[in-house]
Amino acid sequence: MQPRTLFDKLWDAHVIRELGDGWALLHIDRHLLHDLSGPPALNDVRTRGMALHDPELVFATPDHAVSSQPGRVATTFPLGGKLHAGLKQLTGAMGVQLFDLGEPGQGIVHVMGPEMGIVLPGLTVICGDSHTCTNGGLGAMAFGVGSSESTHALATQTLRQQKPRRMRIRCEGRLAAGVTAKDLALHLIGRLGAAAGVGYAIEFAGPAVEALDVEGRLTLCNLSVELGARFGMVAPDEATIDWLRGRPYAPQGEAFEACRCGVQPRRNHRCRCRRPDDHLGHQPRARHCHRRRGARPGARRHRQRPRGMGRRARLHGPAGQRTDRRHGRGLGVHRLLRQLSPRGPARRRGGGARPARGRGRARLGGAGLRERQACRRGRRAARCLPRRRLRMARARLQHVRGRQRRAGAAAAALGLHFEPQLRRPPGPGRAHPPREPRDGRCRSGHRPHHRREKPGVNHPFTTLTGPAVPLMRPNVDTDVIIRIERLTTLGKTELGPYAFEALRRRPDGSEDADCVLNAPRFRDAPVLLAAENFGCGSSREGAVWALQGIGVRCVIAPSYGDIFWSNCFQNGVLPITLPVAQVQALAAQCEGGAPVTVDLQACTVAAPDGQAIAFTIDPLRREALLHGLDDIGLTLKDDALIRAWQAADRRRRPWAWPTAARPRP
């Protein structure tokens, strides 16, 4: 038997039907929803007159636009009130389990799933969040999707997916004191690049990865998307099983033992002599991470601060600082956060309190299982401090540059309130952009051009002729295409005026005449020329809707973010991949506004100089664009096959179905 990777095994186990050319109809075991992308997907299913295919496999929680203030309600953060109301109303009407504000289980969506035992090794997991790959730290095949794919999964409990290439990153040696999984991930990104994982499913292996605790593995997989990969995985072992044991939604008793039957002891992952089916074969173009220069595997760990921590050490202070609990002397902010953190003390010797993932996210993390304990612990610690020392600790917490307040319960214990920050906020400490109304609407007189075409409706795509606007900036992410604040207040058809807002507008809201997107010759240009890794970052489908709102129906670039690329096809936008040299040559010819012609029938791009540039596209994607086909209708033709596969899977894996193990009260 040919050796298979862990990803291969999980992929093969969930294929309902092979569709040809590497495509397959995959069953989805868990579908997670949040307040930003969940309501549009649920509403789309309802407006189509459909019911959820398997509501017991769907779980929801508000996390993207809710306040972290103690005693918060849905409207404490004004922009999130409408989103929360929509999620609550739709989940109640459609039979979806909702972990609402103030209830155990509410938290960041890709943290709530593992902590509640909803996500298990060997499952397929999707969510409308690019960091869904976090769940791969438990050995699940988890990936982010857009709103259209989320709708497809809600209606059919399946997704049509093309199998990615596989990459194995093996990390040798041992992590030095103070080096965490986040540091390891950032080292990989710095060494390999932000687009190294595009088109790949990454499996992390090696002694350095095996030595991580489960939280560290989840963190490592969380940052797979920053490498450009849609999937990140770590093989499960006994540590994974021990971590899941007793979780509220995890199987109990014999069902739990059946869940662990395919998990190998950790020592087998180190063994170089295994049965062919059990080892992870090397894949083409696989990259390997070795230990840092100068790090010896047998070196003794020291308590002093590791070299190279520099700014982090200055921010957090020395970890070995002693504390006089009676008088509070020497109790630094890093130590206070370690005591009050809802996740407990930091798990490494040489570091202080760890900042949260992402930029500007102050949402209350976790599933809420330990927040109350953390609050009680925080109040006890605060009573041990003299009043003056407590004021100093609060002041220092508020003024540390770049700190992310992951410990919402710790902040509550100190009487601090951190307003939630949307991703990449324009102003520090504010949930709304500077010099703009709080409701997120545009300023008076702000009337950018846009083409009145309805986003989200797939029109047949045959040929397209018009100017091609060259935006030759590498790594343009979806936050640049459309800011998340706009998605909280605007519908699909209203996003066009705000596309590339940070590039097209000055801080005062006026048009930037130097931006190529504002040039009169490129108004309503139907083709966009872009550089490498266009559409990376978040999974938000609003980026494609915003492009449609300014008239773009075709994007030509050397490479794309995986989820953005898929979202384009779901909405009738054609993403063409061409070599860097050809894209640059085409951009030079189009500087003056000369038109290009895209012919999907012939799979060619006619340049202004008359040259016909051929491109390749998957046949299934091509047919869907040519005829404006809807994936949901095509998949529902196989509904009998889907239900037969599910019936067999219930007998084969009863532990994988939530009805097999009811949550404990």
From TrEMBL:
Gene: leuD
GO annotation, cellular component aspect: 3-isopropylmalate dehydratase complex
Location of the region described as Disordered in the Swiss-Prot/TrEMBL record: 279-374, 398-469
Any one of the GO BP annotations: L-leucine biosynthetic process
Biological or metabolic pathway of the protein: Amino-acid biosynthesis; L-leucine biosynthesis; L-leucine from 3-methyl-2-oxobutanoate: step 2/4
Keyword Secreted applies: no
Basic residues bias (residue ranges): 282-315, 345-362, 443-453
Ranges annotated as biased composition (Basic and acidic residues): 433-442
Cofactor: [4Fe-4S] cluster
Catalyses which reaction(s): (2R,3S)-3-isopropylmalate = (2S)-2-isopropylmalate
Coiled coil segments of this chain: none
Sequence ranges assigned to domain Aconitase A/isopropylmalate dehydratase small subunit swivel in this UniProt record: 460-579
InterPro entries: 3-IsopropMal_deHydase_ssu, Acnase/IPM_dHydase_lsu_aba_1/3, Acoase/IPM_deHydtase_lsu_aba, Aconitase/3IPM_dehydase_swvl, Aconitase_4Fe-4S_dom, AconitaseA/IPMdHydase_ssu_swvl, IPM_dehydratase_rel_enz, IPMI_Swivel
Chain's role: Catalyzes the isomerization between 2-isopropylmalate and 3-isopropylmalate, via the formation of 2-isopropylmaleate.
Matching Pfam families: Aconitase, Aconitase_C
Protein name: 3-isopropylmalate dehydratase
EC number assigned by the record: 4.2.1.33
